[in-house]
Amino acid sequence: MIERTLFNADHEAFRDSFCRFIDKEIAPYHEAWEEQGYVDRAVWNKAGENGFLCMSLPEAFGGSDADKLYSVVQMEEIARAGFTGIGFGLHSEIVAPYILQYGTEAQKQKYLPKLVSGEMVGAIAMSEPAAGSDLQGVKTTALLQADGSYLINGSKTFITNGWHADLVILVAKTDPAAGAKGTSLFLIEKGTPGFSVGRSLKKHGWRSSDTAELFFDDVRVPQENMLGELNKGFYAVMKNFQHERIMLAAMGVGEAQKALDITLEHVKTRKAFGAPLFEKDVIRDKLARMQTKVALAQNYLHYVAWLDAQGADCIKEVSMLKAN
Fold first, then answer.
1. Could you give the C-alpha distances from 303 to 145, 238, 298, 307, in angstroms and in order?
2. What is the secondary structure of 202-257 as a DSSP string?
3. How buried is 40 (Cβ within 10 angstroms: 0-12 exposed, 13-18 middle, 19+ buried)?
4. Torsion of CA 82, 292, 73, 306, to 10 degrees
5. Which one of 62, 85, 118, 265 has the minimum C-beta count within 10 Å?
């Protein structure tokens, strides 16, 4: 691979520390987690104890006030190790930033320290059985009642971290007639009457990824549970997509390199016509082309991640990264 120039010595020290965490707390258990369909809850607590959750949050809420590049390192290494069931990225880089950006001071004080410590696991509930991730097609409703509370009804599916989630950011229609302009966000805690978690979904890939169905049956919450402004949920979600897609790209690049590493190991040991496949020119050519594509993707990822870390508006570059 081309030498990294994006990360400094502190980033690389963090990489080493997190890789040791992977070796000790994830690698020995991942096969069992693949069988049961979700990771053990204890790994979240251990990650929190070691400072590996919500690192970019301000120190006032228990975070490290770290730059966004630490999260890129974390996503790369999880994917490079092949442990796709770990939902730290969604918890730290989607759920926590939503609360930091749009939450009231009371909401921040209540939830952010618990997300940092691993006491709470966070999820965001967007996708629905009929709408997928099309936010304009969301059917879950949160209707204002005479007493000022909101009554929520609907269901969500394919929710990452849904099985363990202690706190869910729910996307719901507060004005069903207004389409996307009638969407709001709500904070729903585990144990809220009417909120239930369905089955842990079985998948062909990412089998240990904690993915579940969520149901909301006459869930009643006060106005204080709204996250952000009324009917502004769609805009909040769209604004955050930029950073989220960079995190997904980091995982994609890490997984691509892992697949290539496995392939390289195979062709060096697999023999055909009396010699390892690696000695065949056609195989070496294909490997070189694949490594070139991975290297180019990684370096463009690092460029876009650098733009994002500088606070730049890089929608075009993120879209190109996603296409790549």
1. 48, 22, 9, 6
2. P-SSSTTS-EEEEEEEEEEE-GGGEESSTT-HHHHHHHHHHHHHHHHHHHHHHHHH
3. middle
4. -150
5. 265
Structure-token pair, residue 106: 């009371």
pTM above 0.70, yes or no: yes
Confidence of residue 184 (pLDDT cuts 50, 70, 90): very high
Taking 3-state DSSP, the helix, strand and coil percentages for the chain, each rounded to the nearest 5, stand at 50, 20, 30
First to last CA, the chain: 17
Q: What is the pLDDT of residue 42?
A: 95
Q: Other CB atoms closer than 10 Å to residue 139's CB: what's the count? A: 14
Report the largest interatomic distance among the alpha carbons of the chain, rounded to a whole angstrom.
Answer: 81
**Interhelix angle 69-81/9-21, nearest 10 degrees:** 40
**Residue 181 DSSP class:** G
Alpha-carbon torsion, ordered 10, 86, 167, 194, to 10 deg: 180
Q: Which two tokens stand for residue 268?
A: 């060096």
Tell me which residue has tokens 């390892």. 276
Interhelix angle 233-269/281-309, rounded to 10 degrees, is: 150
SS3 276: strand
Please identify every residue annotated as catalytic: 244
Both tokens assigned to 269:
């040991």
Q: Does residue 1 surpass a pLDDT of 50?
A: no
Is-contact 34 8, C-beta < 8 A?
no
Helix or strand or coil: residue 15? helix
Q: Who's near 190: CB < 8 A, 6+ residues apart?
A: 165, 166, 167, 168, 197
Distances (CA, A) of 260 to 165, 257, 277: 34, 5, 15
Count how many residues are written for the chain. 324
